[in-house]
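> forwarded from #structure-qc
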C-alpha cells in the first residue's frame, strides 16, 4: 500500500516535472520565435528604409536632371531670342542708316529743286518778256503784210487754209487709192496662203458612205435559220428594225439595206448577236433589237464625248454632245457629217489663229455648225435655223449661234468667226470626192417617203425598204381596222404619187396584227 502511494506520488512528481519542462520548453520556443519575428520585422523595416532612400535619391537625381534640362532649354531659347533680338537690332540699325542716307539724298534733291524753281521762275519771267516783245513784232509784221497784200489777216488765213485743204485732199485720195490697191493685193495673197496652210495642216480622208451593210455568217445553214419557218424570223427582224434583209447567193453573208444609218447599225449589231447566240425566233429577235437600241443611245453619247475631247472643245451641254454623236450616222451628199464637222472645226481654228482671232471660239463654231442635221428630219425648218435654235437653247456663245445660223448665208454675217466657218465649210465640202449628189437626193427621198406615211393617223412605225421601192407601215390595231388598213394604204399611195418623184413604182404595205399575251404561273 505504501509502495503504491509512493509510486503515485512519484508519478505525480514526475508528471509535474514533465509539465514544468514542457512549459519551459514552449516558453523558450515562443521567445525564440518572437525574437526571430522581431528580427525579420527589423530587417524588412531596414530594407524598406534603404529602398526609400534609394527612391529618394533617384527622385532627387531625376528632379535635378529635369531642372538641368529645363535650364539648358531656357538658356538655349534665351540665347536664340538674344540672337534674334541682336539680328533685329542690326536690321533696325541698317534701316536707320538707310533712312538717314535717304533723308540726306532727299534734302539734297530738295535743295536742287529749289534751285531749279528759281531758275525756272527767272526763265519764265524772261519768256514772258520775250513773248510780249514777239507779239509786238508779229502785230507790226501783220500790219505791214496787210498793207502790202491788200487783204486782212483773216482773209489771208482763209485763203491759205483752203489751198492747204485742197492739196491735202488730193494727196489723201492718191494715198488711199494706193493703200487700197496694195491692201487688196496683199489680202488676196494672204487669204490664199492661209487657206493653203489650213488645208495642208488638216488633210482628212473622205469615204462616201453607202446604204448597205454586210453581216458575215459562219456557214450557209445560218441563212435558213435567219429566214425561219415560213419566213417568220426574217419578217419579225425587218418589222423590228425597219431594215431590209437581202439573202442572195453571196456565200456566208447577208446584206442589210436601209437609208437610215442608225437603224442599219442597230440591225447589223442585233443580227450579229443573234448569229453568235444561235437562238433565232421572233421573241428573241425583238428582245435583242430593243437591247441594241438602248446600247446605241449610250454609244452615241460616248461618240459625242470622244469627238469633243479629240477636237478640244470643252463645256458642251450634254444634249449637244448627244446630237454630235448622232452626226456619226448622218451623211450629207455621201459625206459623213461628223467627220465634216471635225474638219471644219480644225480649218476654222487654224485660219482664226493665223488672222489673230480666237481659235477656240472658231473651233467651237466649226464643230457645231451642222448640229441641226442631227434632228432636221424631226423638226420643221432648215438645218441652219434648227442648229442655231438648239445652240441658243443650250447656252452657247452668241457668236457661235450666229455662225451656225449664217454659215449658208441664210442670215447676214456679223462677225469674223461666221466668215471663217463659211470658208472652212466650203473648203471641206469642195474637197474632191467628199460629196456625191445622188446619194443625198436618194436619202432625202426615202426620208420624205417615211415622213408622208408617219403623217397619217394611226401609224405606229414606217420603214422605207428595197431602196425606196417599198414602204412598210405598222399601224395601231385599236385605231385602224382591217377595212381601214386597205383604205390607208390607198391614201398613202395617192399622196406619194402627188408629192414625190421616184423611178418605177412604190409598194405600200400596211401591216396590222393583234397580239394576245398571257403568262403561265
Amino acid at each position: 500500500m505504501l509502495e503504491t502511494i509512493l509510486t503515485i506520488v512519484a508519478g505525480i512528481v514526475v508528471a509535474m516535472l514533465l509539465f514544468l519542462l514542457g512549459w519551459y520548453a514552449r516558453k523558450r520556443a515562443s521567445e525564440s520565435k518572437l525574437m526571430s519575428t522581431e528580427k525579420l520585422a527589423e530587417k524588412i523595416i531596414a530594407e524598406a528604409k534603404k529602398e526609400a532612400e534609394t527612391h529618394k535619391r533617384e527622385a532627387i537625381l531625376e528632379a535635378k536632371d529635369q531642372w538641368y534640362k529645363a535650364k539648358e532649354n531656357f538658356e538655349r531659347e534665351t540665347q536664340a531670342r538674344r540672337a534674334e533680338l541682336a539680328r533685329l537690332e542690326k536690321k533696325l540699325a541698317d534701316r536707320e542708316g538707310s533712312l538717314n542716307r535717304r533723308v540726306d539724298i532727299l534734302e539734297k534733291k530738295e535743295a536742287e529743286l529749289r534751285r531749279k524753281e528759281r531758275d525756272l521762275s527767272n526763265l519764265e519771267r524772261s519768256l514772258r518778256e520775250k513773248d510780249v516783245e514777239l507779239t509786238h513784232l508779229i502785230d507790226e509784221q501783220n500790219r505791214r503784210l496787210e498793207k502790202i497784200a491788200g487783204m486782212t489777216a483773216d482773209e489771208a488765213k482763209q485763203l491759205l487754209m483752203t489751198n492747204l485743204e485742197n492739196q491735202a485732199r488730193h494727196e489723201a485720195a492718191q494715198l488711199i487709192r494706193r493703200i487700197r490697191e496694195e491692201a487688196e493685193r496683199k489680202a488676196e495673197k494672204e487669204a490664199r496662203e492661209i487657206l493653203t496652210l489650213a488645208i495642208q495642216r488638216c488633210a482628212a480622208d473622205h469615204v462616201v458612205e453607202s446604204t448597205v451593210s454586210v453581216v458575215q455568217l459562219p456557214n450557209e445553214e445560218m441563212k435558213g435559220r435567219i429566214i425561219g419557218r415560213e419566213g417568220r424570223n426574217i419578217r419579225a427582224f425587218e418589222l423590228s428594225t425597219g431594215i431590209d434583209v437581202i439573202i442572195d447567193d453571196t456565200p456566208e453573208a447577208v446584206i442589210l439595206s436601209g437609208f437610215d444609218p442608225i437603224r442599219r447599225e442597230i440591225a447589223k449589231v442585233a443580227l450579229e448577236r443573234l448569229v453568235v447566240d444561235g437562238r433565232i425566233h421572233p421573241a428573241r429577235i425583238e428582245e435583242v433589237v430593243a437591247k441594241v437600241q438602248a446600247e446605241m443611245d449610250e454609244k452615241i453619247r460616248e461618240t459625242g464625248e470622244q469627238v469633243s475631247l479629240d477636237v478640244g472643245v470643252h463645256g458642251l451641254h450634254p444634249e449637244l454632245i448627244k446630237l454630235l454623236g448622232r452626226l456619226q450616222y448622218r451623211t450629207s451628199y455621201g459625206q459623213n457629217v461628223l467627220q465634216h464637222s471635225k474638219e471644219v472645226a480644225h480649218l476654222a481654228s487654224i485660219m482664226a489663229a493665223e488672222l489673230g482671232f480666237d481659235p477656240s471660239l472658231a473651233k467651237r463654231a466649226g464643230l457645231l455648225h451642222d448640229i441641226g442635221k442631227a434632228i432636221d428630219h424631226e423638226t420643221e425648218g432648215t438645218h441652219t435655223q434648227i442648229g442655231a435654235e438648239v445652240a441658243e437653247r443650250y447656252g452657247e456663245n452668241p457668236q457661235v449661234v450666229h455662225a451656225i445660223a449664217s454659215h449658208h448665208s441664210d442670215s447676214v454675217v456679223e462677225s469674223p468667226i461666221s466668215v471663217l466657218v463659211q470658208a472652212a465649210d466650203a473648203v471641206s465640202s469642195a474637197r474632191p470626192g467628199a460629196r456625191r449628189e445622188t446619194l443625198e437626193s436618194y436619202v432625202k427621198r426615202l426620208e420624205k417617203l417615211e415622213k408622208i406615211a408617219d403623217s397619217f393617223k394611226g401609224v405606229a412605225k414606217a420603214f422605207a425598204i428595197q431602196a425606196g421601192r417599198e414602204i412598210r407601215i405598222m399601224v395601231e390595231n385599236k385605231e385602224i381596222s382591217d377595212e381601214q388598213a386597205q383604205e390607208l394604204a390607198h391614201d398613202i399611195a395617192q399622196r406619194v404619187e402627188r408629192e414625190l418623184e421616184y423611178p418605177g413604182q412604190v409598194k405600200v404595205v400596211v401591216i396590222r396584227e393583234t397580239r394576245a399575251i398571257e403568262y403561265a404561273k
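QC bot note: Residues 236 and 282 are 6 Å apart (CA to CA). Confidence is low (pLDDT under 50) at residues 199-209, 432-438.
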